[in-house]
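Objective 1b of the project was to move from sequence-level analysis to a structural picture of ligand recognition. The entry below was assembled by the postdoctoral researcher (A.K.) and checked by the PI before modelling. It contains the amino acid sequence of the target and the SMILES of the bound compound, magnesium ion.
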Amino acid sequence: MTGPRPADGGTGAAGAPSHTGTFGASGIIRFSSVAKEYPRTGTALAGVSLVVAKGEFVFLTGPSGSGKSTLLKLVYMEERPSRGEVRVSGVSSSTARGGDIARLRRKLGIVFQDFRLLEDRTAEQNVLFALEVTGAPRAGMHAKAARALTQVGLASKGTSLPRELSGGEQQRVAIARALVNDPFVLIADEPTGNLDDRATRGIFQLLRDINAAGTAVVMATHDMELIKRSELRTIELNRGQVVFDSAADPAAGGGGAR
Ligand SMILES: Nc1ncnc2c1ncn2[C@@H]1O[C@H](COP(=O)(O)OP(=O)(O)OP(=O)(O)O)[C@@H](O)[C@H]1O
Ligand SMILES: [Mg+2]
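Corresponding predicted holo structure:
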């Protein structure tokens, strides 16, 4: 807790995220020969090496059971690799302790397919909760929450309960909650998996806008249409291995590092 901390600048100037990796040219996530084995089910990931650069947008795809959620859990360090190393914003899976992981999570936004909102709290209270748990100063909390809700297009829905919102709106609240702490990366595990086409497009556009403002996005999805249309970097898993990475294959039109 007492080590040197980067000057955060508090609010973070628009378009200039203050969190940068401490390794590589601009890598914020690095997997080096990562394997993950679960006690009863065996190998979930094997020999995974990849780098995600600052500000990048990356699709993570592959069949059910191929290891997408496991890979994302390793990024936010809910799971540790069985072999190899995961480094995220300078935090290493080999040495990270509870406090390091808690600090890392404050700089990560995480969004799930099933939204995971607190059902008995309003949209605004859900967003405020994400600030409260990080021990942010109380002053200015409401303004921050309101700003995040405005950013996701829900300025007028702050007092609605989750059950009073559509699926797409609930996911927007979840994204506002993920954004309110100014993350350097947004991790989204099938964020559109429960939504219809129209809501899917809206959420995807929102993630693109968030990315355009400087936040890296790693999004797991089965939606091949979305992937094909958007020509963003795509990493495909199969049986726990990276079988395709468009950044490593310029002919694939994945756009390389940016
Ligand atoms: N907590 C766990 N304990 C044991 N095995 C697990 C655990 N989580 C995942 N697995 C196993 O690891 C493998 C990869 O699962 P994972 O959830 O990462 O796949 P996925 O690509 O996200 O699939 P889906 O598209 O269905 O979400 C599967 O074989 C799964 O059974
Ligand atoms: Mg999954």
